[in-house]
């Protein structure tokens, strides 16, 4: 049996404009602009869905082994007839017996 365990850790930092410019200068030789955006950039708009009991919120807060997010995402398109993507993001963590 193959068991995959995923771990993800995020840390966010507030940086100055000078630090930002230094990071861009250091990383730009190794990166490329996104070909889908004008000037390599575009806006992403996300709308997350929840029910009246806030079940999705509490799944995340309580770190349940199974949790999900429901999201509507639009990429740089403000036209009402433009494309939107409805996503169901799920996380499944195996539960282990503590024998």
UniProtKB/TrEMBL annotation:
The lineage of its organism: Bacteria, Bacillati, Bacillota, Bacilli, Bacillales. InterPro entries: VTC_domain, VTC_sf. It comes from Compostibacillus humi. GO terms for biological process: polyphosphate biosynthetic process. It comes from the Bacteria. Pfam families: VTC. This is VTC domain-containing protein. Residues 8-93 form the VTC domain.
